[in-house]
Amino acid sequence: MALKVYNTLSGGLEEFTPLVPGQVGMYVCGVTVYDRSHIGHARALVTFDVVYRYLRFLGYQVRFVRNFTDVDDKIIDRARANGIDTAALTEINIRAFAEDMAVLRCLPPTVEPRATDHIPEMISLIRELQEKDLAYAVDGDVYFAVDRFHGYGKLSKRRLEDMVAGARVEVDERKRHPMDFALWKASKPGEPKWDSPWGPGRPGWHIECSAMSAVYLGQPFDIHGGGSDLIFPHHENEIAQSEGARGKPLARYWLHNGMVTVGHEKMSKSLGNFMTVQQAAEQVGGEALRLFVLGTHYRSPLDSSLERLQESKRALARMYETLARADSLGPQPSASDAPEYGAVLQEFRAGMDDDFNTARGLATMFDTLRALNRHLDAGEREAAAACRAALADIGGVLGIGMEAPQAVLERTRSELLQEALLRPEEIERLITERVAARKARDFARADAIRAELKSKGVVLEDTPQGTVWRAER
Hints:
Blueprint: E1 4-7, E2 12-15, E3 23-28, H1 39-57, E4 61-66, H2 73-82, H3 86-103, H4 119-131, E5 135-138, E6 141-144, H5 160-166, E7 181-186, E8 201-203, H6 205-217, E9 221-227, H7 231-246, E10 251-257, E11 260-262, E12 265-266, H8 277-284, H9 286-294, E13 302-303, H10 306-327, H11 339-352, H12 358-378, H13 381-398, H14 405-420, H15 424-439, H16 443-455, E14 458-463, E15 466-471
Parallel strand pairs: 3-4, 3-9, 9-10, 11-13
Antiparallel strand pairs: 1-2, 5-6, 6-7, 7-8, 11-12, 14-15
Helix pairs in contact: 1-9, 2-3, 4-6, 4-7, 6-7, 8-9, 9-10, 10-12, 10-14, 11-12, 11-13, 12-13, 15-16
């Protein structure tokens, strides 16, 4: 088997071959920290967290860089509206971002640079572009000359003349070409600023990633990732800047996740139809949100609703019930040589090698959970142990099912019983009464107890070991 990825640059699936055998350099555009992250951000963050995990699972040594944009028009406007300076606002939101990443079970990247810590590198890159006549200064601003970079539009598959015809850009008489974009912006009163050869100012958005990726990964590197909304203009402009300055490719593989929609309309803060990661976690928990994101292939649109998030929470609860059941048997026999273990991992890898198809990976996971239940019912401990070990490995890649199952169930039970206003001892009393009714062949009373508990969110299951219960919404 070989990993194949969809490369936006070529427009097709390609076998993944890193520049240096056994090593991968990956850069993913991070968030602009003017507010908390929403589910749309969560999709990109979870997607590339799984890419990172799977590459490491395959044995690669991965250097994963994800940046913070901490100087930007939105940050300046929000800080001004809140009556604080931009540094204070970004610090608040970077801390909040760390909380959200923990909720989503995302691993920390290797490096997490901030744009404002790399202003000298940005200035140096802009000067290189000027020296190559790919950039020009006007009144303290510096623009990239798009018509002087051969191949502009190759990532987004757009022609420059078509962009001009359909452009929705402000007319700026100082630009040589309508699509020229800012590399450096002259400072306005009250804005953060840095000294530069063109006067005090701040960097444009696109130059940040070109500079930071070069610092931490060099050029070229293996994978550049981000949301599909970044293909144009952000990633297109990164290519123009980096390749224009250095004369060699920026990245070999360009991976882009699809957008999250609400009622098939893009989720965004500007439209006001978003749910933050924090809000979603309060409703269903961060792991259920992660499961929801991974249930659809990363390149496809993902339509969000509270009902679908709650479905993920229920599926997660069933998963942990099965895992808890397996773990309750105590230490299991070694599973690494069992045929069931190898078959499950082979099936999982077949899905993930197909462009990180987490939907197929999750299908393997849930099929294996059902097989685990069958082996447990049949008392087949070796086969059950093999399935449990495979689930642990799959969970480590997907970031799902990695908590202590019994602790999760106790927490879930506690939450749901509070909603149902039931105490565990009351449930146990009713179960005892139902057992007695069944022995007395009073099946009407036994069924009535089951129905009463179910109406309050408590589901009974009769097993060879006795009656057990779980709480559901």
